[in-house]
Amino acid sequence: MDSSGREVLIFSLQFSWESMGDLLAPPGTLETLLGNEAIARGALEGGLNVAAAYPGTPSTEIGEALSLAAKKLGIYFEWSSNEKVAAEVAIGAAWSGLRSMTMMKHVGFNVAADAIFTLTYAGLTGAMVIVSADDPHCHSSQNEQDNRHYSEAAGLPMLEPSNVQEAKDFTKEAMELSYRYKIPFMLRTTTRINHQRGPVRLGEITAKGTIGKFEPPEPDRYLQVGAIARKHHAELLKKIKEIQGISGNYARVEGPQDSEIGIITSGVSYAHVKDALRLAGLEAKILKIGMTFPLPERMIGEFLRSINTAFIVEELDPFLELRIKALAKDYAPDLEILGKLTGHMPQVHEYTIRTVLEGFSKAFGVKSPIDFSEIDRRSSKLLEMVPPRQPILCPACPHRSAGYALRRAAGRAAFMGDIGCYALLFQPPFRVEHVTHAMGSSIGIANGVSLATQQDVVALIGDSTFFHAGIPALINAVHNKRKLTVIIMDNRTTAMTGHQSHPGVPYDAVGREAPSISIEDLVRAMGVNYVRVVDPFDHKGTEEAIREALKTDGVSVVITRRECALLTVRNIRAEGKKIVPYRVNKDKCTYCRVCINTFACPAFVDTGSSVEIDPAICFGCGACVQVCPYDAIEPQEGSLNWRDDKVGV
Predict the structure, then answer these.
(1) Are residues 603 and 553 in the same domain?
(2) Burial category of 515 from C-beta neighbours within 10 Å (exposed 0-12, middle 13-18, buried 19 and up)
(3) Which ranges carry the 4Fe-4S ferredoxin-type domain (predicted)?
């Protein structure tokens, strides 16, 4: 690992540590923690030995926190190549008698599901917690899938915390329950739990080393074939029934016991319910459920018998509502049950206090003390005054240069995009992404489009995403003689989630030196004959490589290699150097606006009569110099030319 890479990594780790609460504070301490930090602390209190994950918002900070704690505590943490591998690393540790955890965002669970579904049949000798971080409202995701369905489908017991303290406590509890019942436990969170910050009372850290022993409890325990799997399925169902007997320990009834209105809720929705009841002045008792699979059926049934109307408050799908309606058939068949299925609550987006208040208004006729129409009116008026802002690539981002060259070289192609910062290239002026679907799908879908059309087909994929899910699709393209071009945009990190390591960089999750897997060697080994590595800041060279690739029969690969600009800037500053911006020579500028209309760096400022460069935004990379047809963009004294100086390559 070169010194600059090490400096960047150390800087990143220090930056992350300073942004966190004291994860390793002594027991009894009250610390302000992020929800994800609280989950990490709960795992440490639960005796964690091994953790593995692939970064994905809103779960990433759990891994960041554990990576910082790993060396101090002697535990193991890694950023795995994808979620399935991360789950399997945790499985292997749990089958060796250790306590493990894997963390992923909701769509990451889709990748890991194959291994997890079979795991519940096999069981464990140690313990394992699986964190699924759902993302209602698609804050950083491509869908709003509700992973509670996975728990029931896989036979995976599930706890759902409603605040930061419970995020810590339930993680520890999940680890203990997993060890007791020899089955993995799922901790299901949502964005507002993961990214909420609040006070947490800490317990004792019991995390320790990583020495276990692989010793199956019986010879066929981990052999899920035919008759053996059928036997294990029956065992799983029996175990779930046993766990159901304790699920009531994670539920409670609160509020006026004689109320005829009962609200059933879980997770962060519980907090919204509490606030909405107070604001509306509505008298109702609440059944808060903490273990949402298996449900405490008897407790729910008794609650239903005690009320005349049940109101279900839960984000996304009617998961609780459907199961409560089924229970009501036996316990309270005439009970009125209100929720999503009756149109009182929405089935999309995340909930707020307003959502719940509006549901109460529809159901019970209570008037909200807050005039939301007036808030909407004022908000609309304010938004009219604020210029619209769209998400943009950072100044000096190498993906901007790659998109610029790609547009010029292959503007008429069908562009298959992927998951990463470069997904923003769907916007003008680039328009080089017609598809953004799922991790690795750019190359997979390009396989299909190339055989179904006569168009030039280009797949864009990042370095981390390529290792995650792009390799099988590329192998498929080579084997089946597809004609397509793959642009692997190698910015030397997993940038979108905060600069985590991946197999293509020379260090691991905790900063130790590690073998770096060469993307170009790997691609050539797959049988790709046309492989070019270019610096995207060399616009002309990148354009030429793409044009040649499009003319090549079969599969062609162009690797645009330059590290994420944020890493480069950190490294420049760590070396004591100053970032000196470029400027526009007003005597040469013709106000043609080519720079803005084709390159769109946020440092450009349109004054109405000329273009200027905002020195507070410009990172001084010099990539824009090649864009101006009149050579009007110039360095200032002390400015670096990243391309000529090989900075960030």
Answers:
(1) no
(2) exposed
(3) 580-602, 609-638
- Residue 387 confidence class, pLDDT cut points 50, 70, 90: confident
pLDDT exceeds cutoff 50 at 471: yes
Residue 584 sits in the same domain as residue 562: no
Q: Which residues pair with 129 in a beta bridge?
A: 101, 185
Annotated binding site: 589, 592, 595, 601, 618, 621, 624, 628
* Direct distance between the N- and C-terminal alpha carbons of the chain, in angstroms, rounded to an integer: 14
Please report, rounded to a whole number, the percentage of residues in the chain having pLDDT higher than 90: 86
Alpha-carbon distance of 340 to 314, in angstroms, equals 9
Q: Write out the binding residues for [4Fe-4S] cluster.
A: 589, 592, 595, 601, 618, 621, 624, 628
632-636-642-645 Cα dihedral, nearest 10 degrees: 120
Q: Is residue 6 part of a domain?
A: no
Strands (E), 153-298: 158-159, 185-190, 197-201, 251-254, 261-266, 285-289, 291-293
CB 65 within 8 A of CB 20: yes
Return the closest-CA partner of residue 494 out of 75, 4, 12, 84.
Answer: 12
* Beta partners for residue 286, in sequence order: 254, 263
Chain segment 140-164, per-residue pLDDT in tens: 898 999 999 999 999 999 999 999 9
Q: Is the pLDDT of residue 48 over 70?
A: yes
For residues 58 and 194, state if they share a domain.
Answer: yes
At 185, is the secondary structure helix, strand, or coil? Answer: strand
pLDDT band at 17 (very low <50, low <70, confident <90, very high): very low
Rounded to 5 degrees, φ, ψ at 526 are: -75, -15
Average pLDDT, the chain: 93
Q: Under 8 Å CB-to-CB from 585, ≥6 apart: which residues?
A: 632, 633, 634
Confidence of residue 21 (pLDDT cuts 50, 70, 90): low
Same domain? For 140 and 100 the reply is yes
* Residue 102 amino acid letter: T
pLDDT class for 644, splitting at 50, 70, 90?
confident
> Among candidates 630, 550, 565, which has minimal Cα distance to 395?
565
- Distance, in Å, from the CA atom of 16 to the CA atom of 23, rounded to the nearest integer, reads 12
Q: What residues contact 313, with CB distance under 8 A and at least 6 apart?
A: 263, 264, 265, 269, 270, 272, 273, 339, 345, 351, 356, 359
12 pLDDT band, cuts 50/70/90, is very low
Q: CB under 8 Å to 154, separation ≥6 — which residues?
A: 113, 116, 117, 120
Q: Write down the residue that tokens 């597809």 correspond to.
A: 482
pLDDT digits (tens, 9 = 90+) for 506-538: 999 999 999 999 999 999 999 999 999 999 999
Average pLDDT over residues 447-476: 96
Considering the domain architecture, whether residues 423 and 475 belong to the same structural domain is answered as yes
Kindly state whether residues 406 and 537 are assigned to the same domain. yes
How far is residue 37's CA from residue 161's CA, in Å, rounded to a whole number? 14
Structural domain for 43, as ranges: 19-244
Tokens of 162: 């409603």
Residue 367 CB-half CA count within 13 A: 3
Q: Of the candidates 513, 548, 569, which is a domain's last residue?
A: 569
Any bridge partners for residue 462, and if so which?
489
Residue 487 has pLDDT above 60, yes or no: yes
Cβ–Cβ under 8 Å, residues 293 and 159: no
Average pLDDT over residues 456-483: 96
128-138: string of b/e by CB count within 10 Å (b at 16+)?
A: bbbbbbbbbbe
